[in-house]
Design a protein that fits this description.
With 433 residues, this protein is mostly helical. The protein has 20 helices and no strands. The chain is globular.
């Protein structure tokens, strides 16, 4: 019964999500990727691997609900594998699956067909493999973790920093020895992972459009407003753009309004030369040096929204988007409904402005795990807990300077990693670890 318990609990969790939230929620990003899957087009600005998975799913499962099924199946399988590897009695395993898998912010994110949720589920599966490797060391577990990390990085372009601590752990387990040896092995694994994830996202014939100008132009707009002068290179704005125009369109928690009027000439709709890209990049990179107060003030404000320090001022759509956005010729789909949905979704919505959805809580939990494991050093279990906590921190910290908006979904892995790290630290199987 102990072996079956986490899998039965995960099956119940899977059934709950499907019954309450079928066929899932589609924000604009999700609807755009569904459109690509239907038409066979690829946009490198969004992970092509997600489109290819969606295309494969469409052959055998209802669309778009089939994608929801595969997404939540990956999550609950990771939770069951994690609880099984942690061990303990049947009820402890069940509570681990439900406590982590249905933690309110994670349960609320699960129905959204987002690359962030896929990355979270795949990284959680990798951690489950590494915990299993502690209990019964096998190269197969480590190879499985590597494969899941590659897949997770393919789904989320900025996932590599979060993978680095886990890769270092795999290197240490596979090639124990000097720090130099482990460091070189980690670097080699990181390069291999990056290349493999990039290969999975190749989109031959598609326009390869850099995504960094979205962030750069939002930052430049914020600093231009603070300095009361337009700092953009002339080729990137419409003639006659004024600071008043920038101020009218600007939002401190999402970049989209700044581009709505079309007066900022976003590279998705214009062809730019390498020299023009370099000119924009030079202005962007000069902001911290030439206008530090305005630049870091802007980034501090974005981070305050992202980390849940301004929940009352932040619109709920930056946290959850429980709807199906119509886009182009995508078929009309009835949104989730039914008694179970009516019982769950309003309760999840009511929690959006509580500490459960505040990112800083999970950063603090990750730091607490790092400090506790560093002090007591109880064994490999504590080491893995610290590594998982570090992974959650490293997906979040770059966002303080690079987030294009304050969407809570960017912190999905931070939330999951902090909880998994705490579970590893609190409930190791001491006889095996």
């Amino acid at each position: 019964m102990r072996r079956a318990a986490p899998w039965l609990a995960a099956a119940a969790g899977l059934a709950l999500v499907l019954a309450a939230f079928w066929p899932g929620y589609l924000s604009w990003d999700s609807a755009w990727q569904w459109w690509q899957a239907r038409h066979g087009e690829l946009d490198p600005g969004h992970p092509p691997v997600m489109v290819r998975v969606w295309q494969a799913v469409r052959f055998v499962l209802p669309d778009p609900g089939g994608m929801l099924l595969v997404q939540v199946l990956a999550w609950w399988a990771a939770m069951a594998g994690f609880a099984h590897a942690l061990g303990g009695g049947a009820w402890r395993r069940v509570l681990c699956v439900w406590g982590l898998g249905a933690w309110p912010p994670l349960l609320a994110l699960l129905p959204h067909l987002w690359k962030d949720v896929w990355m979270m589920a795949l990284f959680a599966g990798a951690v489950a493999c590494l915990v299993a490797d502690l209990q019964a060391p096998r190269r197969g577990w480590r190879l499985g973790a590597l494969a899941l990390l590659v897949a997770g990085c393919a789904f989320r372009h900025n996932a590599l920093p979060a993978a680095l601590p886990l890769l270092a752990w795999v290197a240490w387990r596979e090639w124990p020895g000097s720090r130099l040896r482990v460091g070189l092995a980690t670097a080699a694994l990181a390069v291999g992972l990056h290349l493999a994830a990039g290969l999975a996202n190749l989109a031959p014939g598609a326009r390869d459009t850099p995504v960094w100008p979205v962030i750069a132009m939002w930052d430049i707009a914020a600093v231009s407003i603070a300095q009361d002068r337009v700092l953009f290179p002339p080729d990137w704005v419409e003639p006659g753009l004024t600071v008043q125009d920038l101020r009218r369109d600007f939002s401190p928690f999402v970049n989209v309004p700044s581009f709505a009027s079309g007066q900022l000439r976003l590279n998705f709709y214009y062809d730019y030369t390498p020299a023009q890209y370099a000119e924009l990049r030079n202005v962007w990179l000069s902001l911290p040096l030439d206008h530090p107060r305005a630049y870091f003030g802007h980034r501090a404000e974005v981070s305050a929204y992202l980390l849940g320090l301004r929940q009352a001022q932040q619109p709920d759509f930056q946290v959850l988007q429980p709807a199906i956005v119509p886009l182009r010729d995508n078929p009309a789909v009835a949104p989730p409904s039914g008694a179970l949905h009516r019982a769950l979704q309003p309760r999840l919505d009511a929690l959006v402005d509580t500490p459960l959805f505040a990112g800083w809580i999970y950063l603090a939990l990750s730091v607490a795990v790092l400090l506790a494991t560093a002090v007591r050093r109880r064994g490999p279990g504590d080491g893995l807990a610290a590594v998982v906590a570090g992974s959650g921190l490293l997906i979040a910290l770059p966002l303080l300077l690079l987030a294009p908006s304050a969407d809570f979904r960017y912190l999905a892995w931070t939330v999951a990693a902090s909880l998994m790290a705490a579970a590893i630290a609190a409930f190791p199987r001491r006889e095996s670890l």
